[in-house]
Predict the structure.
Amino acid sequence: MARRRTWNPITIIRRRLQRIERQSATRNRTPWTRAVDWCLPLSLPLGFVLAFALDANVSRVSTETLATVRLGRDDRGTPLRGVILRDDPAGVPWPFGSPLATVEIRRRTIEHGWPFASRTTVAPLELPTVPLADPDVVVDLAHPDAARGLLALRDATDVDLFDGLDVSLDVMTTERRRDLVDDVRSRATTTTRSWSATLAVAATLWLLLFVSSIIAVRGIQSGAWLAQRWRRRSMVGKLRDGRCPFCGYDLSGVRFPKRCSECGRRIWG
Ligand SMILES: [Zn+2]
């Protein structure tokens, strides 16, 4: 029964929707569409596993210099003195008769996980000190082993920086950086865990895995389709040349071959 042609937009839309519904109900579900359907639920646990693996194995370290202190003496034999450096080091003259070393107060932050940091570790503050007498020797004044490094420095260059840590912390205290002093003294490592970041990482990876698995399935599907098309073409080509499409045996002498006399397979058409 042919339906009357209509220009009523509501009728057009209604008919179109009916057609889509009918088509989707009768459409054959191929193994390929089923594989695509499975990509979504299967990539979810994989996303979580990958998120935890990245959290354990991938980390970024960033170092921030919070303050810079210069150490020196006014004269030989006078006590060690320190000043905080505010501007560009190259443009500021040393205020001591006998300049000795530069101390940086540094915070190292380690972020674990990708693309977001689901775990963040803040290491104890470091005070790497570069003596002017030998810039290749760097001693971390905050490290428990600092005394050994300072002893070696004094033996090699006659520079005494044993009061370096106390002087640096005194400078920080007078500069109202009590927080840094407490931080250096406690030598605490703090780790913060963000489960929402872990969830965000897992969701991002889930999406990436889902999209890439669909691309992979569709890629294999097109490869299979091309291979099938090529096989059909070569079969048709062989038939046209009067040869068996399976084994290539010459059948041009036979008028209507039903079966190949060489391999015994049925020939259609
Ligand atoms: Zn044959």
Notes: The chain has two domains: 57-193, 198-269.
